[in-house]
Amino acid sequence: MSKVGRPRNQTARRQALVSAAGQAITERGLEGLRIKDIADAAGVSQGSVLYYYPELDDLVLEVHRGAVEGYLESRQRAYESAAAGSPAARLRALVDSGLPSSAEDSLHGLLYQLHRRAGRSPGHAELMTSLFGREVGLYATALEVGAAMGVFTLAASARDLAHGLVALEDGYGLHIVSHNAAVRPERARELLLAQARAVTGCPDL
Amino acid sequence: MSKVGRPRNQTARRQALVSAAGQAITERGLEGLRIKDIADAAGVSQGSVLYYYPELDDLVLEVHRGAVEGYLESRQRAYESAAAGSPAARLRALVDSGLPSSAEDSLHGLLYQLHRRAGRSPGHAELMTSLFGREVGLYATALEVGAAMGVFTLAASARDLAHGLVALEDGYGLHIVSHNAAVRPERARELLLAQARAVTGCPDL
DNA sequence: CAATTGTTTGAATCTCAGCTCAAAGAACTG
DNA sequence: CAGTTCTTTGAGCTGAGATTCAAACAATTG
């Protein structure tokens, strides 16, 4: 028996399809997702889309996974490369990277779109849970480091505070991408920072 | 010219259709919404649904409006009938009425479903904005009354604090209805109360 | 190169749900 | 009651989009 008649670039193709699907979802929403749009965006035929993803849900789940991964990486990067590396700077970096920059922030928009499936699909719920957990982890670490260095005076356990900050971030983010005029990104950022200040007792945030 | 040949119960019918549509959305989600389901739930034919709502979007918007209204009334009621009428009891009532009681809480589920349209439909965005504003109002009033009575010592302006509490509530709520296992209703309630305690300086919350 | 297996295409087909519409029914008018 | 207008129905039409599939095409093997 031979190896593979036509190995090729399955991985690359899948990657391209995931990216194309993400783009399509961003543009027309989850309910407006059409195989044709994915195919067009990826520059292939409809048949090819089905060849790789006979079950469209699998593709959407991949998109979700990719969005979560990418988002987390970007936050991680922001966190690590925070100027000075001071606890305050790091925490500020987290806050800055966690809010949609505007109502049309596409990464946040995509994430909130996909999160909506969580109520009906265990796979998506798992991704959302994992994202939440990892974000809490980031914040908790930042808080603990700051406390250990004596810069922060935590008002409660780092874990609980982190929990709250992430939830707050999500709440504000939801309103921002939903075009709630009463929640402007700048204001949300201010309020989030105020909360961070309050729970850390650190004035220079 | 005569009055109305066949006046009847337009209002009642519309009401029934709105309620049926709400039920259908709750059961199968916004993307799974089918005229047939609405018709069945309302006990009429498909034609009737179109007769009253040639534009399905209008019906969905009505559902949203109704859900927002109903939700707000229930919170208002909870607020007003809070035992003792003490500021602390009132605030607690707000917190209790603002979180989904479980992942399957149907009113909250419906609201979050409909809020998702806000990103693409001004009408829905408006409803969401109005809901947010009114919730902030409720919290702000509760905080101000408590402050005026000397029971609360506000850590910032009542408005900003209320803003934050509502956003936090929404963040937790989102995770609860999304089946995020890390955010259980009981825990969310605890954390939300802790936050309320922190910003009011009132220990008996 | 012949054989084999993986990949791609797009036209044909299937499916489902929205929408149309003519006809029947019901409440009201005078 | 006859006339008028509002309401309701549901079978068929229509269209969009998913799915199928046979045929063409490409990389790899020996």
Describe the structure.
The structure is a homodimer of 205-residue chains. With 205 residues, chain A is an all-alpha fold. Mean pLDDT of chain A is 94; it is low at 1-5. The first copy, chain A, has helices at 10-28, 35-42, 46-52, 56-80, 87-98, 106-115, 122-148, 158-177, 185-200. Chain A folds into two domains: 1-54, Arc Repressor Mutant, subunit A (Orthogonal Bundle); 61-200, Tetracycline Repressor, domain 2 (Orthogonal Bundle), CATH 1.10.357.10. In chain A, helix 4 packs across helix 6 (106-115) and helix 8 packs antiparallel against helix 9 (185-200). At the A-B interface, helix 6, helix 7, helix 8 and helix 9 of A face helix 6, helix 7, helix 8 and helix 9 of B. Chain A binds a DNA duplex (30 and 30 nucleotides) through residues 2-8, 10, 13, 34-36, 44-48, 50-51, 54, 56.
Brief descriptors of the model:
mainly alpha, Tetracycline Repressor, domain 2, DNA-binding, 0% strand, homodimer, Arc Repressor Mutant, subunit A, disordered N terminus, 205 residues, 2 domains
Query: CATH H-level name of the largest domain in chain A... which superfamily?
Result: Tetracycline Repressor, domain 2
Outline of chain A? elongated
Helix and strand content put the structural class of chain A at mainly alpha
Question: How many DSSP E strands of chain A?
Answer: 0
Largest sheet of chain A, if any? Answer: none
- Report mean pLDDT of chain A, rounded to a whole number: 94
H/I helix tally of chain A: 9
Most extensive chain contact?
A-B, 46 and 46 residues
| Residue share in β-strands of chain A | under 5%
Oligomeric state as shown: homodimer
Which percent bin holds the helix content of chain A? over 70%
Second-tier CATH architecture of the largest domain in chain A: Orthogonal Bundle
CATH class of the largest domain in chain A: Mainly Alpha
Number of domains of chain A: 2
Low-confidence stretches of chain A: 1-5
Distance between the termini of chain A: 65 Å
Rg of chain A computed from alpha carbons, rounded to a whole number of angstroms: 20 Å
Keywords (chains A, B): DNA-binding, Repressor, Transcription, Transcription regulation
Protein name (chains A, B): TetR family transcriptional regulator C-terminal domain-containing protein
Pfam families (chains A, B): TetR_C_6 (PF13977), TetR_N (PF00440)
InterPro entries (chains A, B): BetI_C, Homeodomain-like_sf, HTH-type_TetR-like_transc_reg, HTH_TetR, Tet_transcr_reg_TetR-rel_C_sf
